[in-house]
Amino acid sequence: MDWGTELWDQFEVLERHTQWGLDLLDRYVKFVKERTEVEQAYAKQLRSLVKKYMPKRPAKDDPESKFSQQQSFVQILQEVNDFAGQRELVAENLSVRVCLELAKYSQEMKQERKMHFQEGRRAQQQLESGFKQLENSKRKFERDCREAEKAAQTAERLDQDINATKADVEKAKQQAHLRSHMAEESKNEYAAQLQRFNRDQSHFYFSQMPQIFDKLQDMDERRATHLGAGYGLLSETELEVVPIIAKCLEGMKVAADAVNAKNDSQVLIELHKSGFARPGDVEFEDFSQPMNRVPSDSSLGTPSDGRPELRGTSRSRAKRWPFGKKNKTVVTEDFSHLPPEQQRKRLQQQLEERNRELQKEMDQREALKKMKDVYEKTPQMGDPASLEPRITETLNNIERLKLEVQKYEAWLAEAESRVLSNRGDTLGRHTRPPDPPASAPPDSSSNSNNGSQENKESSEEPPSEEGQDAPIYTEFDEEFEEEPASPIGHCVAIYHFEGSSEGTISMAEGEDLSLMEEDKGDGWTRVRRKQGGEGYVPTSYLRVMLN
């Protein structure tokens, strides 16, 4: 069934229907355009949300990035960002494949519809013009017939009138004959016009207009088909991104499953383990017997002038409880501002990084040397002299990195010794140098040496602010009076050692020292400086020569 046959007389209906179809197409284009704007706004808001909650610091500088829950959250944010990208892709595809294509197609349909209806109106106008000509010829024929009949009646009346002259009668007959002839011509013209109009009308209703209506039907069906395809693109565009969105959702699920509470607890230990030993018990100080009390962890002992001095107040000021408020520390190159365990880890990281850089520079140097050899053997490939600046720069970098590696190795060795010296006995190892033998008799010179050593250490203590910020070490507070011991050998310091913890002594690189006591397996050796003062230093820092 087609419009040309079934709707031959519904020109206005078809005009309204085709206009409605084009309006529907335009409405759908507008709908998709607004849908695109919604998708773009949604994607923009998602990206803004991700940017708001994404960590600002790089992962290598952010300790929180080591926790699985933080890593999972960052992964979820990345998946949401990818999801936003898919929404942007949906908006882009809808804009290009639906809005632009259908808008262009709508314009083409409007032009085609306009052409068909203009053709139909021209056919209508031609038919109406033929009908007007038919009406005119019909009225002329009717008028001529009346005139001919009237002329015939006049001629007949004059012919019967005895008073009429012959001339009047002849004139009336001629007039009647003329009118009759004109009526006959009008009749023939009317018949011809009628035949022509009937032919045109038949062509109009059975051929011309059905063809136009069929073209309109074809146009409208093509428009409807195209619109249906546009409807399908709405879902197809969504289906195209469903696999990637599913991967985003799966990534979020994987991120959720990746949260490891136990591992995060271990990470917290690795990040913040100080390596300090727990403080020992505070001994009772009997102030009722100030002259006879035994020196304890919280007393400084008797000065060299023999006057008893109560300790504890000055020492307690140098201590800081681990739960107190921490002051701001100054970052140093050797990370000495960090607790021993954290210092060791950071130095280890720096050393590994320098070694990687050193290996990279050495590989580059070898590559440049090979390239230089190739240039020397084949000059057309390049000038060997052009590589000299790069080779020189690489050699300078290698020397610089070697010095840095040595520096970090020395710092790392010192940090490792400090970690060992501060470990608790529960680990099955000595955490500090062994205490001096308690059986040694008191001696003024030894006491003087210990006093001078303590005075020196007191003078080298950091300011009160840093002292309050210093962690609690396992301290060597007990004092013993010993007879002067004879050195069992001598040794030379290979590295510089600060001796910042209690019981240790500082030494400079290359300094000659007297060996007072050998390493008992804990990694520490007791030495005496020429300037006076005894203490423990790492055995690995010494070159020992026994007597």
Automatic annotation (TrEMBL):
Disordered: annotated span: 168-187, 282-323, 422-487
UniProt domain SH3: residue ranges: 486-547
A GO cellular component entry from the record: lysosome
Coiled coil: 341-418
Residue ranges annotated for the REM-1 domain, each copy included: 337-414
GO molecular-function term, one example from the UniProt record: lipid binding
Compositional bias segments (type: Basic residues): 314-323
SUPFAM superfamilies, per database record: BAR/IMD domain-like, SH3-domain
Record protein name field: Thyroid hormone receptor interactor 10
Name of encoding gene: TRIP10
